[in-house]
Design brief:
glutathione-dependent formaldehyde- activating enzyme (gfa); 3-stranded antiparallel β-sheet; 11% helix; 34% strand
């Protein structure tokens, strides 16, 4: 598939980016570093060329290991991605940091030694939409706001 332009950023919107990306170049990384860096059972990532990234509000970079760095928002803490410290023209962005992440299609599982199998196929679990959860919606109304779309 051809690359398309997509934008994204952190939760507080102080760190923003625009990038040319192939939505089919995404995957899940299950390595323990990605699990800890995102707080999830896996990191949903999409690979891009660093030269295709335009930042509007610079991220901070955490040296997460001797070989890698991870961009994040220094204000709200949102994890934004991953890159090798040296020797790669590519980097990865977290799928969830994109404004419209629905286009991305995972094509691989990486770090398979740390896959938490119970979380791989959750398609049979019951689903509740945010607007259907009475307690959450009450809290949003009391705050004078609506849940993020």
């Amino acid at each position: 598939m051809a690359k398309i332009e997509k934008s994204g950023g952190c939760q507080c919107r102080r760190v923003r980016y625009t990038v040319q990306v192939d939505p089919n170049d995404a995957g899940l990384c299950h390595c323990r570093m990605c699990q800890r860096a995102t707080g999830g059972v896996a990191a949903a990532l999409v690979s891009v060329k660093q030269s295709d990234v335009v930042w509007d509000g610079e991220p901070a970079w955490y040296d997460s290991s001797p070989i890698a760095q991870r961009p994040f928002c220094p204000h709200c803490g949102t994890p934004i991605g991953f890159r090798f410290r040296e020797g790669s023209e590519n980097m990865d962005f977290t799928v969830g940091s994109f404004d419209e992440p629905w286009d991305f299609v995972p094509k691989t599982h990486f770090g398979a030694e740390s896959v938490i199998e119970a979380w791989v196929d959750t398609s049979a679990l019951p689903r509740t939409r945010t607007g259907e959860h009475e307690v959450i919606m009450k809290r949003w109304r009391e705050a004078g706001a609506e849940p993020p779309a």
